[in-house]
Amino acid sequence: MSLKKELPSGPIPLSNGPIPSYHFGMSDVVIRLSEMRAYYGKFLAVDRLDLELRRGELFGLLGPNGAGKSTTVKVLIGQHRPASGTAVVCGIDVARDWQKVKPLFGYVPDRENHFDEFTGRKNLEIFAGLYNVPKSRADECLKLVELDEAANVPVRGYSMGMRKKLLLARALLHKPQLLYLDEPTANLDIHSSAIVHRILQKHVKEGGTVLMTTHNMPEVEAICDRVAIMCKGKLVALDTPLALRQRHSERKVDVILRSNERLVLDMDNDEHRRRLADHLAAGTVESMHTREFDFHSTFLKLTGTIFD
Question: 68, 99, 120, 122: least buried by Cβ within 10 Å?
């Protein structure tokens, strides 16, 4: 039987203590993309992307299909070479010194590539051998993602959510400094999503860095320190979820009068504020409510595309 999956080459040392730091100087920047361009054939997938990720940061990368998210991640994991510009990870140029970069990250792809005929434990033990880490680490990672009770079940019997969690367990085997995750909570129930969030938050708290792509807007607000939104290969927004909320919230009030007339009043408009005050003073307001921030609407506003 041949192992046809994409496997790392060469032994990767395991740290028994906290996540180690690699090539950090005075700066806490661990990933730096500078003027990076990447093509698929003649299609420009990433257009002069400038982006920096810091140590201890949980970073969300959003965008519609074809925005360049996956291509960006593929450059970082060495599956796609940039046409121009640079991708530097922990002070190492990805294109020039790939073998030095490879031990530093764990990767959770959007499509699983397990050995279905083997158990969950056996799948991880195969990779533990490739990473040159003790087999006992497989059991630690299975327990971490709450798959320890299914450790001896062939993966063909796993649900989609279990298979996704097994990918995360595999990525954590060698305690990497960096985690790259493509839709890490897709097909997960609420409880399993919470497990993944807890693992990622613990990883960054210990000094690691997480880059994740996601279509889950509530997830972005709940766990991401910063968010980048891409569209047509370009970076169109970069900030914290809170700053995006503050910048793009609609300061409008929906009002229903006792006469059943409905009003939408803009609180940035002096005349609208006076109208609301007059109605309140006259007691003609039946009900009113402010509009909540909607990350989905903000995404549409920034990209001008339908989010799918």
Answer: 99
